[in-house]
Design goal:
By secondary structure, the chain is an alpha/beta fold. It folds into 3 domains: 292 residues, ANL, N-terminal domain (Rossmann fold, 3-Layer(aba) Sandwich), CATH 3.40.50.12780; 72 residues, Luciferase, Domain 3 (Luciferase, domain 3), CATH 2.30.38; 105 residues, 2-Layer Sandwich (GMP Synthetase, Chain A, domain 3). The chain has 15 helices and 25 strands. The strands form 6 sheets. A 9-stranded mixed β-sheet has the order 2-1-10-9-11-12-13-14-15, with helices on both faces. It has a 5-stranded antiparallel β-sheet with strand order 17-16-18-19-20, with no helix packed on it. The protein has a 4-stranded parallel β-sheet with strand order 4-3-5-6. It binds adenosine-5'-diphosphate (ADP). Adenosine-5'-diphosphate (ADP) binds next to strand 13, strand 19 and strand 20.
């Protein structure tokens, strides 16, 4: 058989040659649309590839993007990896301290900054040593920005030459449990294979006739691979910019058929989508992941709007797709309620992904049965799963000796292979589909001289999935002891603000005399949750 490297250049070439007339539509900040087709995108990607090379970027160099979902970001998604450099999308929601740390570790040589984030970028620009910064503005596809000037002045053709499919193509950071960022380096091979697997009919199932809207940001786990899967399939793409003011309007105006985002987005968009039910008739499927999709929301979309909900589970470490919840043929005869119950599970492994449930023993792990009841640590492996973190040796905390990834999720798997997450062993809170490290917040709170103990737990929240709650024991004679609880909470929030993003800051602080402990003297987070979860209101 022919044996040549599997690379993203093949996806780009296929999209251009076979689907050149397909559209990429970007919602601009002024509410109008920028539209062009794959051929126009292809020509710009070639020029961009030459321009980036001219700037001195070599094979293996990291090039960051600090941008929302726009056509320029899509161009960078191809141009950077296709010259052999490494695309590093930065999460715009992280704090300046976290971003500076990530950029330093990644040693990014060049950063492309969306003008919408130019001010935000200035807050950490001086803290990073990056050779060059290039601004672009989604509003202008003429030569009014340096980005456009570069494209205009660059040579038009580029001969892709990725010689080894194991060359790195992308770098995404995920939040470590201690709050430290962890890089995951994807290769051309892993992303190519992920693209093929993730777009099977029983997985994303995107076809040439689809119009795909990735609401999931392009800085979050490679937008779940949709920029590659959609273009390989030849679908039209709609890019929503930062956050569309009205998702329902965007879907109606652009005829979106498949959209992807976290449950919080779909909970928020539901009332408006319901109002415009007739205008969004073409919408056939939502791909939902990042956190659990509540059963009530699945029911609302499927029953009231006739939109199929596909609940997915994955991790940045897995490129990111791991499981996908679709019904089997034998489920056809079930009642709707029974079907929704199955769909609320995180789903079955996509082809190429292996799952196992494990329990830790004194000499390693034993495998647990797939009976839908036994809870175990979820472990995975696949050709698109990381075998170590960037610049780190694989540690026993994350990887087993037989080279499976320990996900930190606790789950059951039933006899049909449907996996359901029941708990999280890792100290991460999931809010709006993003991770918040409880350990990092606790450590930061303890820096205040009047805080004796601090525990942060994730309280169930209707809108965000979970929100952090801080439970604090103050020293009895501290400087703040004569203040009201509200004042002390404000002081502590202030302290956290300099270090962490806004969405990490606990909405609520509770001051107690004592924190419940487990038999081994650790903070008993389960007991704390039981004490506060039902009563706490924001
Ligand atoms: P992503 O948000 O793209 O899935 P992250 O790396 O940010 O990737 O987070 C991965 C973690 O998110 C998982 O280990 C799991 O705890 C949680 N998660 C992802 N999808 C789901 C889901 N469908 N249901 C419950 N938790 C999920």
């Amino acid at each position: 058989m022919m044996n040549y490297p599997l690379t993203l250049a093949q996806i780009l070439e296929h999209a251009h040659r076979i689907h050149g007339d397909k559209q990429v539509t970007t919602l601009l900040p002024d509410g109008t649309f920028h539209r062009y087709n794959y051929t126009a995108l292809y020509e710009r990607v070639q020029r961009l590839a030459n321009a980036i090379t001219q700037l001195g970027i070599h094979c293996g160099d990291r090039v960051a993007t600090y941008a929302s979902n726009t056509y320029q970001h899509l161009e960078l998604y191809y141009a950077i990896p296709c010259i052999g450099a490494v695309l590093h999308p930065l999460n715009v929601r992280l704090s300046p301290v976290q971003l500076a740390q990530i950029i330093r570790e990644a040693e990014d040589k060049l950063i492309f900054v969306d003008n919408a984030f130019a001010e935000q970028f200035k807050t950490f620009e001086s803290k990073v040593e990056c050779d060059q910064v290039i601004n672009f503005d989604p509003m202008f596809a003429d030569t009014r920005t340096l980005y456009e000037q570069l494209i205009a002045e660059a040579t038009p053709e580029y001969a892709w030459d990725i010689r080894d499919e194991n060359w790195a193509m992308g770098l995404c950071y995920t939040s470590g449990t201690q709050g430290e960022p962890r890089g995951v380096l994807y290769t051309h091979r892993s992303m190519f294979l992920h693209t093929l697997a993730a777009n099977q009919t029983d997985v994303f199932g995107v076809t040439e006739a689809d119009v795909v809207l990735p609401i999931v940001p392009m800085f979050h786990a490679m937008a779940w691979g949709l920029p590659y899967a959609s273009m390989f399939a030849g679908a039209d793409i709609v890019l929503p910019g930062i956050k569309p003011p009205c998702i329902a309007k965007l879907i109606a105006e652009t005829g979106v058929t498949v959209a992807a985002g976290v449950p919080t987005i779909w909970a928020e968009a539901y009332p408006e989508l319901r109002k415009r039910r007739t205008d969004i008739r073409r919408l056939r499927r939502l791909i939902v992941g990042g956190e659990a999709m509540p059963l009530s929301l699945i029911e609302a979309y499927e029953k009231e709007l006739g939109v199929e909900i596909c609940h997915a589970w994955g991790m940045t470490e897995m490129s990111p797709t791991g499981t996908f919840s679709k019904l089997r043929g034998v489920h056809r005869s079930l009642s709707d309620a029974e079907k929704w119950k199955i769909k609320a599970k995180q789903g079955r492994p996509i082809p190429g992904v292996e799952l196992r449930l494990a329990a830790e023993t004194s000499n390693g792990f034993t495998e647990l049965p797939w009976d839908g009841e036994t809870i175990g640590e979820l472990q995975v492996r696949s050709p698109w799963t990381a075998n170590s973190y960037y610049k780190a040796e694989p540690s026993a905390e994350h990887f087993t000796t037989d080279k499976w990834l320990r996900t930190g999720d606790m789950a059951t798997i039933d006899a049909d292979g449907y996996m359901q997450i029941v708990d999280r062993a890792k100290a991460l809170i999931r809010s709006g589909g993003e991770s918040i490290s409880s350990v990092a917040l606790e450590t930061a709170l303890l820096k205040h001289p009047d805080v004796r103990e601090a525990v942060v737990v994730g309280i169930p929240d209707e809108k965000w999935g979970e929100r952090p709650l801080a439970v604090v024991v103050l020293t009895p004679i501290g400087a703040v002891s004569n203040r009201t609880d509200a004042d002390i909470a404000d002081i502590l929030k202030q302290q956290l603000t300099s270090e962490f993003p806004k969405f990490w800051i606990p909405d609520k602080f509770v001051f107690v005399d004592e924190i419940p402990k487990t038999s081994v003297g650790k903070s008993d987070k389960r007991a704390i949750l039981q004490m506060f979860a039902p009563t706490v209101r924001r």
